[in-house]
Amino acid sequence: MSHPSREQMMEAIQAAAAAQEAGEPLPAGGPSPEGQRLPDPLPIDWTTEGPPAAANGVQVLHTPQEFAVLFTDMAMFPGRNAADGQTGHERARVVGSLRMHPDTYFQALMVMASNWNKFVEAHVPPQMRQPKFKLLDAGDLQLYGIKAPKEDA
């Protein structure tokens, strides 16, 4: 089964957002008109979200007071957005960003890592490698799916 293209996913996201704005319920996961299964909708109220953006990259910058997470779109063809118009000097276009306190950044990383561990447990066949994240030097604090180390007494 082939995965939907980025354009198909963006169209599906925009259609779902338009349907929800019109007061229609989000469709449950099922066949799309092209015969591909759409993902089950997340239990989120999307009404306050701005227009969705597709990203194929992420960059992180930080200062002592804040982290900036930049979601970017890098061109698939040479020269796009190059300051000098030359091939090989392409720039990524920022399509969204989040700025957060270091504590919030750490919390976000823990939530993403735990969700990755849940994803692996639920969707990666057991006979395949199951890469998971774990916290180091965290005492009793640990991510989903990882047993806390026993303390030597």
Keywords:
153 residues; 14% strand; three-stranded antiparallel beta sheet; alpha+beta; 2 helices
Give an overview of the whole structure.
- The structure is a single chain.
- The chain has 153 residues and is of the alpha+beta class.
- The protein contains two helices and three strands.
- Strands 1-2-3 form a three-stranded antiparallel β-sheet.
- A hairpin with a 4-residue loop joins strand 1 and strand 2 (67-73).
- The radius of gyration is 20 Å and the shape is extended.
- Mean pLDDT is 77; it is low at 26-32.
Outline the fold blueprint:
Blueprint: H1 6-21, E1 57-62, E2 67-73, E3 93-100, H2 102-123
Antiparallel strand pairs: 1-2, 2-3
Broad shape: extended
The topology string of helices and strands comes to HEEEH
Beta-sheet strand percentage?
5-15%
Which ranges are low-confidence, i.e. pLDDT below 50, for 5 or more consecutive residues?
26-32
Instruction: Give the proportion of residues in helices.
Output: 10-25%
Mean pLDDT across all amino acids? 77
Helix-and-strand structural type: alpha+beta
Main beta sheet, described?
Answer: 3 strands, antiparallel
> What is the tally of helical segments?
2
Question: What is the alpha-carbon Rg in Å?
Answer: 20 Å
- Biggest sheet, spatial arrangement of strands: 1-2-3
End-to-end distance, in Å? Answer: 53 Å
